[in-house]
Each structure stands twice: as C-alpha cells, then as structure tokens.
Fold this protein.
Amino acid sequence: IVNTTIMKKVKMIILAALSVSALTGIQAQTLYDASRLLDNDLNGTARFVGMGGAMGALGGDISTMGTNPAGIGIYRSNDAMISFGFKSLNTESKLGSSKNETDKFRGSFDNLGFVFSNKIGNRTALKYVNFGFNYHKAKSFDKDMVMGGNYNVSQTQQIAGLVNANSAYYGEYLSPEVLLDKNAFNFGDVPWLGALAYESNLIVPGQNQKYNPYLLNGHSVDGYYRSRERGQIAAYDFNVALNWYDRIYLGATLTAYSVDYSKSSIYQETFLSNNQDDGNYALRNYYDLDGSGVDFKLGLIVRPFEQSPLRIGLAVHTPTFYNLEERNSSYLDYDTYNETEGKFLKGTTYTQNQYGDEMEGSTKYKLTTPWKYNFSLGYTIGQSVALGAEYEYSDYSTSKLEYDDGVNMDYENSTIKQSLKGVSTVRLGAEIKLSPEFSSRIGYNHISAPIKTTAFKELSVNAIRTDTEFSNSKSRDNYTIGFGYRGSSFYADLAYQYSTYKEDFYAFDNVDLPATKITNSNSQVLMTLGVRF
C-alpha cells in the first residue's frame, strides 16, 4: 500500500522533472549507451565463422560483404544459403567469497543471403558484375547475470551525492513544505532516482539542506543484483561487386541496421547491524531501446601478380548513423525506518505523472559510431589450403551522441573521448581440404578492450534514468573450428565457436565499492545449408 502523502510528494517531484525535460532536454545518455552499439559479434555463415572471419582477402563467402565488400567479386556462380544454430551462455560473478553463476541455452536464426553472379565476358576487362543481399545478426544482447555479496558502502550514498550536487536547488525542491504546495514550485532539475529515494526514506534531509544516505555508522550492506538482457542488432547488407581481369575486385555494401534491446534488473540492499536486518529496499529497473541505422562500406582485393596465390584486401566502413529511442521506468519497494514517525515504513513508489498514473521516461537521440579500417591477406596453396589474416581498427573514443534535434551532447561526448579507446581486432583462419568434397577449418580472434578501467557511469543531475549499474569490459577471445561438405551444387557447413571475456561490474558508482569480477563464456554451434547454381 502506498502512503497517500508519499504519492502526493512524488507526483510533484516527477512533475518538476518532466517540466525541465520539456524545456531543456534531459541528459540521460552515458558512454555505456554508446559503447553498447559499437562492437559486433563474430557471426555469419558457418564457413566464415569456422575460419574466424578471416576471409576479407580470400572472399567467395556471402558474409564477406559485411567486412570486405570486394569478397563478393570472387563469385562466378549464384549462391543462396541459410544459417541457424544454438548458443549456450554462461556468466560467472565473484565478489569476495561470494560466487554466482547463470546458464542459458537458446536457439538462434543467424543468417540468410544470396548472390547473383553476372558474367560480362571472357575477353573484356570487366569479367563479372555480382549482386548480393545478406541478413545477419550483427550482435546478440542475450545475457543473464546474478551477483551478490557483503560490503560497507551503499547505493544510497551515490543517490545522496546526486541530490546534493546542486544543494541550492535541492534544499528547496525536496523540502516537505514545498513538496505539498504546488504553487511554491520554481521548476528545476530533479533526478528521478533522488525522488524515489526521498519517498522511501533512503535519503533524509540533514543540516544545511543537504541529504544524508540511509546507511548509518556500524551498518554493513548485503547487496544482490539480477539482470536479464535480450535483443539484437540485425544487419541487412546490399552489395555490388566487380571483377576486373580476375585480379582486381571492387565492392560496395550499403547496410541498414535495426536495434532491439531490453533490460530488466533488480538491485536489493539489506542494511545489517549486528547481523540483524535494519531496513531494506529493492530497486527494479526496466529499460528498452530501439532504432535504426545505416552505413556504407567500400572494399578492394588485389592479386599483386597474375595467377598469384596471394591476395591483399583493404576495406573502409563509414560511421553508422543511428536514430534511437529509449524508454525507462522503475519501482522501488522499501521497508525503512522513519525517524520522524519513529517506526518502519513499508511500501512501493514508482515513476508516475502529475495525475498519479504510472509512466515511463522516453528520450530520442542520435549516435554516430567511429570509422572502421580493415586490412587483410589471403593465401592459397594449390586447391587444398586457404589461409587468411586480418587486422581491423576502430577508435571508439570518436563516437558522438546528439539530441534528436541535432545538438551535440558535449559533456557526454567528452566522457566518451576520455573513457573509450581505440579497438584492434586480429582475425586468423585456415581451411584444409581433406578430400574434394570435405574440408576442415580453424580460426581465432582477439579483440582488445574497448573501455578504460577507470571509466564509470555518471548520471546527470536531471536524469530520468534510475539504473546506476555499469560494466567495464576487457579484451575478448574467440576460438572456432569447422567442417564442411561441398557437392556439385549443394553444400553444408558446421562451425563451433567458443567466446570468452571478462568484466568489472559495479552495481552503482562509488569509489569504495569493490568490483564484481565477471567471466562470460559463450558457446555457439552454427549450421549453414546452401546451393550454388
């Protein structure tokens, strides 16, 4: 049951926040919102995955139109294929002596594409003009995580600091006298997280109109966090590629993206004094993101010498231009002690409009990702062995956030520049023919860490976002093997991928909060069925 007075007060707080958003725009985005959309998974056909994606210079596979578009110029026949499989997702968290683990098993539809090959002539300089289309899952967001442990800091300390960041305002806006008098409001910046915490006694007024956290001396905190992420970035590649003299291959790909991401989480704290429960709360967050994007890719493959088994590949990807919309809402269940009333108060408060109706925050914005540069080598030994190597670079710190009206988010972009890094990707792969019909493959990827270890999530003082958690990812390694069959027209490929990376996770921003060490270990089995004709 929600206390009537509390309902009135939270209405006024959120009304103030909404009024500010309408006038000035709410700064809700962070560097973590940008970084979520910057990297891609190793995904595509089973042959491409089995060789670690190192086919930029070798070409001849539908998935190469997303890395080096010139790879489609290698084709001399039509091709149509479909890829599907399943994934096993494992996440292990460690905080002190506490250890938690989650496992998920999910099916996936990964890839669908075709190539139309058009022969121009045997004696002409231009040999082939090829067209291709490919749908592929550029990134999967599927992930479950659980963490828990005991420590001596509280999320309420961050909330109090957020509210006190502009004490000249918050002393006025969050005082009980003003909250009950609508006409007394001079609308200003009020964070939704501060409003919810105030209503649940998690921050309380102190001297000089500053707010103190609920945590008192002598308490420790039992913290617990659980999250569920779902969604994907779907990519749709439209390609044209040219074959000149059977030695120079040019290609271009226009890619459209569709973003669908959702996250639900709960963070709970129990305040302990002499190992006894001295108050607790649970903050539930719901976040959705969707949108679309587009970019353009140019690629070149050259045989430096006639009939040379060596191929050199170059590709450049323009920034992806995203138009995005995010929505968020939250609930806060509490059982906390109120000194004024001299008893524990129990209830639920939530984001709502001035009429008491539940509501969600909504923000539209734009993201421009960095340029991407790709250099690749391919080498064949007779008809039996194909070797590929690639290096790719993208400077994540040059990503840009904008409001939906095109105005730069200057402060957010400065934090991106300070905290994100240039990312290097190395891909290696090999294919060996065991017989004219059967081949085996092996591959490896290394992707450097995209974010500095000192990065943290900073919510602005007028933020409608109430999710305080963040993770700093480290480098990623992908290991792949594969097996394939090629008939006169039908082909089938199978690949297995093992991907692992670590993260430092923080449930909230506090310099004294120890990092939860996260290890992600994901396995994928992928099958491709296709025909060439």
